[in-house]
Amino acid sequence: MPVTFLYNALYAVILAYLGAGALLAGLVLAAFSALLSFWAGWTESGVMIQVGRRAFYATAAMIFIASVVLETALLTHDFSIAYVTEHSDLSTPIALVAAAFYGGQEGSLLYWVLILAILGSASLLASSALGPRLAAYAAGVMAVIVTFFLFVLVLVASPFDVLQITPPDGLGLNPVLRDGGMLIHPPVVLAGFASFAVPFSFAAAALLAGRTDAAWIAHTRRFALVAWGLQSTGLVLGMWWAYHVLGWGGYWGWDPVENVALMPWLATTAYLHSSQVQERRGRLRGWNFGLVILAFLLVVFGTFIVRSGIVPSVHTFAVSAIGPWFLGFLGACLVFSFGLLSFRSSALKSNVEPAPAVSREGAFALQNLLLIGVIAVVFWGTVLPLVSGLAGQERVVGAVYYERAAGPLFAVILLLLAAGPLVPWRHAGRPLWRSLRWPAAAFTVLLVALVAAGVRSLPALLAIPSAFAVASTVLYEYARAIGRWRLAGGGWSRALALVARRRRRYGAYLAHLGLAIVVIGLAASHFWQQEKDVTLQPGQQVSVAGYTLTYAGVQTRELTDHSELVAAMRFGDQTLEPARATYDGLGGQSLTHVAISSTPVADVYVVLAGTNGDGSASFRVFVNPLVSWIWAGGAIIILGVVLGNAGARRAAFVPVASRVTSPVGAS
Amino acid sequence: MTLLVATLLLFAAGPFVLWPLLKTPEESAV
């Protein structure tokens, strides 16, 4: 027994010190990499640039060691480490114990910097075409960001603090996080947030190196797409999780945490479109830099908002004392970014003649302005409690504000999404009006059908026909491409091969189609959701929107880490089991478990509000039309991004910007 | 203790990080 005790004590101490030591070594290496990369880039010393870059890779290795140590400590229930005690216990299923790695403040920061170090290393390995100076500066900027995170992890919020007395069991994970969604949503969202630092680093490096040509865009776009794809997945998974776990019948609550995840996504959406204008036409140089920088600043701002707890949010479990550090980091990033942009402002001026308003460039510019408008709406709604609090009286806005202010902007963006892909570069002529007839016809048919069906809500009459117009544009473009190539005598296989060759374009169209499907799901579930509150005795029925459910009775179930009060509802040949879970080990905290019967037409969503002594139970029953379209559309968006970019080492088209301005890749 | 572990890890990372400088000129020429 003493031997085992000694072994366990030694093991715990070794784990904690190995983890803390790896983080400290990582901090030293990251700071070394930052200083050396800037100096070597400035003096163009090839050998020192390589040393700086290798120091970055070694930093990534140290962060990886620390991550493996933390995961090992969690999986072996090493309760001598405070983080393990605070975020896991013996009764939690092992997969969720593993997920506690990013379930708490310190662990999520470590996970974040791990993703940044991995993606940063990958981006540096792939940066040979950019020239040593730009890549050295990019390594320097990334190393500075990593240094900041490691500084916080070593000195402010270490995941390896050791407790004086080792408790026999941990406190366990927050009940809201004890769900399968915990295994996928937080890691994807955190990875999305972390990945925005890579495009930012390359944009800042291009500005530092005075390389304002399109070369940085070709490199950065891939990593911006990675960030955008991760963030899109994270947003959809977050909605899915909120819908399945929180039990309020919805999926998006305009909570500050949702808002701060949406804003960098919107900025990167704008960048992915405007970057094409620079690639094709050599325009919007400064704007593109601004968007990439804005996306990263919004990520840092979002982290500050979430971690400081400065605005009221449902994600209160994330609050801690590291807020001021992130505020300082945000301030430093703002000064650095604006300083850099103003320093290079003369080189960012476009020397191309202005494009006419009705052109692809014009459509992208308008879309960008609208997206910035949405960001402004979301930003001011999010910081209102903060700003009004400083003025004396704290005020909060709800969904109505966001819908009223951002709704019209989204409506115009949708219409633009239907027309934009059909507008040619540089100028528009008669063929444009001819090709617009398809989306116009789809819009009109849907509008007439909805009005005939008795729909009178203006937002619904705009959103759904617009989404169908977007879908018809995409289908028209696919049909046109395949038809043209078939007419050229290639047959089906050759036509499909040509579509595959121009996959970036057709992948983007698939993403547009996915977005149209998401919009239809959002609009239908938002405008036509029905709900009813009822109290039923066993055997009694309730009908909502034509769906009838029968209450069968209540029973109690004991599970490993909690007990459940289950109220069975018969629905056709299915039995839905909404429940109330109680976690005795967590001081009796309880949580509702929603029961959902999902079809492509509608979801029947049942929440158990409570049970009464006479055997009756109270329910809230929702019927949410077309919710599953949101998840399907989200999957199609991701598929479009993956198919459009997998294996494409460079742009599928030849950038005509090279003819208009300086050659691509020239310094 | 943390400092000692960090020092050991930095020492171990040395050859990898400093390899471009450790290489002899003859080897780099090859």
Word description of this protein:
The complex is a heterodimer of chains A (667) and B (30). Chain A has 667 residues and is α+β, with helices and mostly antiparallel strands. Among the domains of chain A are: 1-216, no CATH class; 530-627, no CATH class. Chain A contains 20 helices and ten strands. The radius of gyration of chain A is 27 Å and the shape is globular. Mean pLDDT of chain A is 85; it is low at 650-667. With 30 residues, chain B is mainly α. Chain B is built from two helices and no strands. At the A-B interface, helix 1 and helix 2 of A face helix 1 of B.
| Main beta-sheet annotation of chain B | none
Helix proportion of chain B:
over 70%
Number of helical segments with 4 or more residues of chain B: 2
Query: Largest interface, and how many residues on either side?
Result: A-B, 21 and 17 residues
Segments of chain B where pLDDT lies below 50 for 5+ residues? none
**How would a crystallographer describe the biggest sheet of chain A?**
6 strands, antiparallel
Summed over residues and divided by their number, the pLDDT of chain A gives a mean of: 85
